[in-house]
Specification:
This protein is an alpha+beta fold. It contains seven helices and 21 strands. The strands form five sheets. A six-stranded antiparallel sheet has the order 1-2-3-4-5-6. The chain has a six-stranded antiparallel sheet with strand order 12-13-14-15-16-17. A four-stranded mixed sheet has the order 20-19-18-21, with helices on one face. β8 and β9 (85-91) form a beta hairpin.
C-alpha cells in the first residue's frame, strides 16, 4: 500500500493512494484534502478555484470528477446539481494524461462520484518560431518538453507503467461519524505561488495604458490609472472653440472701428485676456484630469486602502487593509482589433468580494489557420515572448509583498 506523489503546476503536489487524496503547496502543507468523502480546503484556496464559499464540499455538492484540457490536462470536479466544472490541479505538459487520469480515478473513488471520460486529445496550439517570429501550427503534445521533475510523465498512448515505489504511508484510520461532525482540522493557509520578495522591482513602475505604481511615502503605495472618458474630449473641444470665437470677435470689433479703442491697445487687451483664459483653461484641465484618474492608495500607516473615485468599489472610498486576504493574477483570452490578445488582471481579494485594480493586454498575431486555436498557456507564452516580462505580474508581486498577503499567480 503506497502513496504516490506527483508534482503539478503552480508548485502544487498531489498525494494520492488508498484512502488518501491531498494537494500540498510549496511549503509542504496541505491546502486541500479529502476526508470521509468530503473535500476540505482553505477558504482562500477555494476562492482562487471558484469553489463554493466556506471550507468544504460534501458528497451531495458533487456531481462528477472529470479530466479536462484547460491549458493542460486538469483534474476537476463538477458541482451539483448540473453546476460548472472547477479545476483543482493541472499539468501544462500534454503528455501527463495518464497521470491526470490516475489522479482523477483516485479522487472519484474517495468521494464516491462518477468519473466521466476525459477528452480524447488536447486541441492544437500555436507557437511562435524562435527564428523569424512566424507563427506555426503544432500539436499540444509536441509543444512542451517533459520537465525532469515529473518522473511519472508518460505518453498518453503508451502502456501505463507500474506504480513507482514510494515511501509507504500508513493508511489513515476511518474517522467516526461523531468525530467528523464535530472535529474539523483547519487547513494551512494557501501557498504563495511566486517569490515573496519584490526587492528586485524598482519603483516607480510604469505599467501599460499610462498606469503608474509609485511609493510617494515610506509606508504608502499609490496606483494611478487614466480613465477613458468622452467628457474630457468634449471639454477640450469646447475650450478650443471658445478661444477661436473670442479671437474672431476681437478681430471683428477692431476692424469695424466701432469700439473707439486704439487697435494697438485693443490687441494688448486681447492678449492679456487670452493669457487669463489660457491659465483658467489649464487649471480647469488639470482639475478635470484629476477627476478622470483612478487612484488607489495603499497606506500601511493608517491601515487603509483609499479608492478615488469611490465608485471604484461599490461606492465605498475606504477599505481596511486587514480585509485583504490575497492578491490574484488572473489570465484570460480576448480579441482586440482582429487579433487574439492575452489579458492579465490584478485582483485584490477582500473578505466580501474581489476587486480588479489593473489590467494588462498583450496582443498576439492570429494563427495562419483560423481553425487552429492556441491554448491559454501557449498564447500566454507567445505574448510574453513578444512583449517581454509582464508588468502586471511585477505589480502583483509588489502589492503582495507590500500588503504581506499570499499571491496566486495565473
Amino acid at each position: 500500500m503506497t502513496i504516490r506523489a506527483v508534482a503539478a503546476d503552480e508548485q502544487l503536489t498531489v498525494y494520492y493512494g488508498p484512502g488518501t487524496w491531498r494537494l500540498h503547496g510549496p511549503d509542504g502543507r496541505p491546502v486541500l484534502e479529502v476526508r470521509a468523502g468530503v473535500i476540505y480546503y482553505h477558504p482562500l484556496f477555494g476562492r482562487w478555484r471558484d469553489l463554493p464559499p466556506g471550507d468544504h464540499i460534501s458528497a451531495e455538492g458533487l456531481e462528477a470528477v472529470q479530466v479536462h484540457w484547460d491549458g493542460g490536462w486538469a483534474v476537476g470536479i463538477t458541482l451539483a446539481p448540473g453546476g460548472p466544472w472547477r479545476r483543482l490541479v493541472r499539468w501544462e505538459d500534454s503528455r501527463m494524461l495518464v497521470t491526470a487520469d490516475d489522479v482523477a480515478r483516485a479522487l472519484a473513488d474517495l468521494t464516491g462520484c462518477p468519473l466521466l471520460a476525459e477528452e480524447p486529445e488536447p486541441p492544437a496550439i500555436v507557437r511562435v518560431s524562435p527564428v523569424g517570429g512566424q507563427a506555426a501550427g503544432v500539436s499540444a503534445a509536441a509543444s512542451q518538453p517533459v520537465p525532469p521533475s515529473l518522473p511519472e510523465a508518460e505518453e498518453a498512448d503508451t502502456p501505463r507503467p507500474a506504480p513507482a515505489a514510494t515511501a509507504p504511508e500508513p493508511p489513515p484510520a476511518p474517522p467516526s461519524p461523531a468525530a467528523t461532525a464535530t472535529v474539523i482540522t483547519p487547513l494551512a493557509a494557501p501557498p504563495v505561488y511566486t517569490v515573496d520578495s519584490a526587492a528586485d522591482i524598482r519603483l516607480p513602475l510604469r505599467l501599460g495604458g499610462g498606469a503608474l505604481l509609485t511609493r510617494d511615502r515610506q509606508d504608502r503605495l499609490q496606483l494611478t490609472m487614466p480613465v477613458q472618458s468622452g467628457r474630457a474630449s468634449a471639454v477640450i473641444t469646447f475650450l478650443g472653440l471658445l478661444t477661436v470665437a473670442f479671437f474672431a470677435g476681437v478681430i471683428w470689433l477692431l476692424r469695424g472701428g466701432s469700439t473707439g479703442i486704439n487697435p494697438v491697445l485693443g490687441l494688448v487687451i486681447a492678449g492679456a485676456a487670452l493669457v487669463v483664459v489660457g491659465l483658467l483653461g489649464v487649471a480647469l484641465l488639470a482639475r478635470l484630469n484629476q477627476q478622470f484618474e483612478r487612484r488607489i492608495v495603499f497606506d500601511r500607516t493608517e491601515r487603509l486602502i483609499t479608492f478615488a473615485p469611490p465608485e471604484a468599489f461599490d461606492g465605498r472610498q475606504r477599505v481596511a487593509l486587514a480585509s485583504v486576504q490575497g492578491v490574484q493574477l488572473r489570465g484570460a483570452v480576448t480579441r482586440r482589433r482582429g487579433h487574439l490578445a492575452y489579458q492579465r488582471t490584478v485582483i485584490l481579494m477582500l473578505e466580501n468580494g474581489d476587486v480588479p485594480i489593473f489590467q494588462e493586454v498583450r496582443e498576439a498575431p492570429l494563427p495562419p489557420d483560423p481553425a487552429v486555436m492556441p491554448s491559454l498557456a501557449a498564447l500566454r507564452r507567445q505574448a510574453d515572448e513578444q512583449a517581454g516580462p509582464s508588468l502586471a505580474r511585477a505589480a502583483a508581486r509588489v502589492l503582495a509583498w507590500y500588503l504581506k498577503v499570499p499571491l496566486a499567480d495565473e
